[in-house]
Amino acid sequence: MGMTDKLWDAFSTVIKMNDKVMGLASTAVAQQAKIEDLTARVIRLETALEIALSGRSTAPRRRLPGPDQDRS
Q: Taking the complete model, does pTM exceed 0.70, yes or no?
């Protein structure tokens, strides 16, 4: 195999790798958008849960006795 053939193989390999890298870059962009969407959804769910839990506690809370109260 001559020098020209080796050089041509190297160029074709680089071109193939470039195509794969470009495909992976577009996949990474799509995955990042999905992650950001899921993060926003989790934030909304956490907020709804906190609102629901804060409005639910209408019963008086039991407290531990203070230092000046009898602990019987």
A: no
To which H or E segment does residue 56 belong? helix 3-56
Angle at 34 between CA 28 and CA 36, to 5 degrees: 105
Longest CA–CA span in the chain (Å) reads 97
User: For the residues of 5-39, what is the DSSP string, one character each?
Assistant: HHHHHHHHHHHHHHHHHHHHHHHHHHHHHHHHHHH
Each domain of the chain, given as residue ranges in start order, spans 22-54
Q: Give per-residue pLDDT as tens, 54-70.
A: 887 666 667 778 777 76
